[in-house]
Amino acid sequence: MISMQTIIGGNWKMQLGIKESIQLAKTLVSSLQDLERVKIYVAPSFVALPEVATIIQNSPIKLAAQNMSEYESGAYTGEISPLWLKELGCEYVILGHSERRRILGESNELINKKVHNALKYGLKPILCIGESASERSSGKVKEVNARQLEKSLKDIDSDQIKNIIIAYEPVWAINSRGLNPTGEIVPATPKQAEEMHNFIQQWLVSAYGNIGKEIPLQYGGSVKPENAKDLLSISSIHGALVGGASLNSTDFVQIIRSI
Ligand code: 13P
Question: Is any ligand 1 atom within 6 A of the Cβ of residue 223?
């Protein structure tokens, strides 16, 4: 088994304004100075990226964007170019998050264009995939995730795949009322997450050979201080993509310290 540095990301979604993002970034910088065994990134909203970039610049915390355009520049009102993200110091960009796929209508084809565009300008995509509750209950879990991988990674070669992180985020486990309007939202059990991470790793090996084993796989969906240790002790789970719990510095730091 290849040992990989654990990667923990905080996806702040559309939850924090500029002032709150500044405050959280400052607290994280002062709490996370000695991070040898773990890589950390935070993904603030676009409007908070410049301020957060300045705060974290001499810390071990890296910057991620939550989305970007499939275009480089031009007359595309409201879009954000990968060039600007790079200029701001982003290392990563989250692409294909389920909230964008399922609430905002992004297709695999669009996500694939964004993956190519991110790589072209030196950003590392964090490609999110995951099945809904009904896809799981109808026995389509592997089929859905395999299709998202195949289409979102179309024409990505084995040199490019080394710069991609895959985040497995089962839709039913994401603490989002937009995605899960009713009912209880529960994290995947370590067994459910392990089964899917093993499947994703096998898929990557069959597509890219042994390099497939070196692609970091993050789990996302209701990761909290209470369940992080069990999930992160599984060998095919190389990190976590944290939503709600990343908005609270104590919880986020506790998740990181549980490694
Ligand atoms: P929660 O941790 O709030 O369930 O969100 C997960 C997620 O969507 C991270 O991208």
Answer: yes
